[in-house]
Amino acid sequence: MIADPAWKSALLHKGQDVADLLEAVLSGKDVDLASLPVPSGPGQDPELRLRNFLDQIDRAIKTFDTDAYGRCQLCGADLDRGALQQQPWLATCPVHAGRWIS
Ligand SMILES: [Zn+2]
């Protein structure tokens, strides 16, 4: 996977957005989490969802220049380039979508 350098700035921006949302949640505000990945279980609280997503974004940034980037964390399959274009923080293939590794 040759990552598009534009994805890295998308990752950094998204990380900032999610960090801001987390701060809002921690200060007791209602936030819209529609832009977050689907939770891995029902009733998962917003703070945990935001922290998980931040971790996922961080991991993508850290692995960005390595072979690990653009591969499913569970099975190692190459991720779809079009999907990464939309969501450069993607960490799993469609088969394993919605499963978190923590
Ligand atoms: Zn997979």
Q: Find the CATH topology.
A: Four Helix Bundle (Hemerythrin (Met), subunit A)
Number of strands: 0
**CATH H-level homologous superfamily name:** DksA, coiled-coil domain
The helical percent reads 40-55%
The figure for the number of domains is 1
Attached small molecules: zinc ion
Distance between the termini: 24 Å
| Architecture (CATH level 2) name | Up-down Bundle
Describe the main β-sheet briefly.
none
Report on the architecture of this protein.
- With 102 residues, the chain is mainly alpha-helical.
- The protein has one domain: DksA, coiled-coil domain (Four Helix Bundle (Hemerythrin (Met), subunit A), Up-down Bundle), CATH 1.20.120.
- 45% of the residues lie in helices and 0% in strands.
- The protein has three helices and no strands.
- The protein has helices spanning 5-26, 46-63, 81-86.
- Helix 1 (5-26) runs antiparallel to helix 2 (46-63).
- The model has no long low-confidence stretch (mean pLDDT 90).
- The chain binds zinc ion.
- Zinc ion is lined by residues 72, 74-75, 77, 92-93, 95-96.
Q: How do the helices and strands line up, and which of them pair or pack?
A:
Layout: H1 5-26, H2 46-63, H3 81-86
The structure holds zinc ion.
The site of zinc ion has 8 residues, from loops.
Structure summary:
The chain is mostly helical. It contains three helices and no strands.
Keywords:
single chain; 102 residues; mainly alpha; Four Helix Bundle (Hemerythrin (Met), subunit A); 3 helices; binds zinc ion
